[in-house]
Design goal:
Keywords: Magnesium, Manganese, Metal-binding, Mitochondrion, NAD, Oxidoreductase, Transit peptide, Tricarboxylic acid cycle
Structural class: alpha/beta
Radius of gyration: 20 Å
Distance between the termini: 41 Å
Subcellular location: Mitochondrion
GO biological process, one term: isocitrate metabolic process
Organism: Carex littledalei
CATH topology of the largest domain: Isopropylmalate Dehydrogenase
Protein name: Isocitrate dehydrogenase
Strand content: 15-25%
Helix content: 25-40%
Length: 369
């Protein structure tokens, strides 16, 4: 039953350990019909979203990728995701999305969470690793954070019990805990990963996080070749910033995964270079892997200096998911060439390049492959 559920894992992120930057040891044998064009739903989003999604569109056109986009305007201040957008994603199965801002207060719920729940995108997957040519405090970081995406503190079940007293419910279920644990171990198995670490706070939330750990332990017993350990979330954060190389695959409930993925991303270059995806049984949305902290940065937007690397790498993941591996490899290699050369870097990476300059450099490298 579970084996079919994880049929897309080989495509969504390249196997690890990663091959050298300019060499790939796997020879792909395209199947007849693999070049059949696919339509992908595109949501440019807010702030820097339209800038970086336009960067992806330019690169896809330059490399003649067999992908066309069906674009919809969606903004974080809307009451809900328009029905035609949901229909488009259900029809196309795959979506590429820029950041959507969630306003603080005002009763407007997160459209990001709405999309994940509506499409049952139960697994968030972020690959945090060192990129050649990008100096960071730590080397040998190669962490995959797999986060449960539909419940926990993000259930949105809040109410005011009495004036000045608010109750927020954290929901953890056996069903969702089982499937995210299974996803993490199946990912590790298919990608030759050696260890899965469950992140929790079961010393305090004994029932909720205790149930999550129970599922992880049950699933771990089915994969004896993969090491399994557990870590309390506060200790996890300390260990991440002091010795991140000890982690391999991390599986987490919803809120912890958000915090852990952003922390791990900060260790290897920041949110501007980390790809990610949200996947379920039938649909997938690819976007910047971790919170787009500069999504609404007016200066970056005005100067058009948003970093497109994260979304370009997410697009490579999308191409692999769509079973266009040769296009995915070309795009990934071209982006890594640009990063390793260091000539065109946006401000978050210590440079002053515009988004367009980075895009032009990526296209120039594509033409050399």
């Amino acid at each position: 039953m579970f084996r079919q559920s994880f049929r897309h894992l080989r495509q969504i992120i390249p196997s690890s350990p990663s091959p050298p930057l300019f060499h790939r040891s796997v020879t792909y044998m395209p199947r007849p019909g693999d070049d059949t064009p696919r339509v992908v739903t595109l949501i440019p989003g807010d702030g820097i979203g339209p800038i970086v999604t336009d960067a992806v569109c330019q690169v896809m056109e330059a490399m003649h990728a067999p992908v066309s986009f069906e674009t919809y305007e969606v903004h974080g201040n809307m009451d809900s995701v328009p029905a035609e957008v949901i229909k488009s994603i259900r029809r196309n199965k795959v979506c590429l999305k820029g950041g959507l801002v969630t306003p603080l207060g005002g009763g407007v719920s997160s459209l990001n969470v709405q999309l994940r729940k509506e499409l049952d995108l139960y697994a968030s997957l972020v690959h945090c690793l060192n990129l050649p040519g990008l100096p960071t405090r730590h080397d040998n970081v190669d962490i995959v954070v797999i986060r449960e995406n539909t419940e926990g503190e993000y259930s949105g079940l809040e109410h005011e019990v009495s004036p000045g007293v608010v109750e927020s419910l954290k929901v953890i279920t056996k069903f969702c805990s089982d499937r995210i644990a299974k996803y993490a171990f199946e990912y590790a198995y298919l990608n030759n990963r050696r260890k899965v670490t469950a992140v929790h706070k079961a010393n305090i939330m004994k029932l909720a996080d205790g149930l999550f750990l129970e599922s992880c332990r049950d699933i771990a017993s089915m994969y004896p070749s993969i090491d399994y350990n557990e870590i309390i979330v506060d200790n996890c954060c300390m260990q991440l910033v002091s010795k991140p190389e000890q982690f391999d695959v991390m599986v987490t409930p919803n809120l912890y995964g958000n915090l852990v993925a952003n922390t791990a991303a900060g260790l290897v270059g920041g949110t501007g270079v980390m790809p990610g995806g949200n996947v379920g049984e039938d649909y997938a949305i690819f976007e910047q892997g971790t919170s787009a902290g500069n999504v609404g940065n007016e200066k970056i937007i005005k100067q058009r200096k948003a970093n497109p690397v994260a979304l370009l790498l997410s697009s490579a993941m999308m191409l692999r998911h769509l079973q266009f591996p040769s296009f995915a490899d070309r795009l990934e290699t071209a982006v890594k060439h640009v990063v390793s050369e260091g000539k065109f870097k946006t401000k978050d990476l210590g440079g002053d390049s515009t988004t367009q300059q980075v895009v032009d450099a990526v296209i120039a490298n594509l033409n050399l492959l």
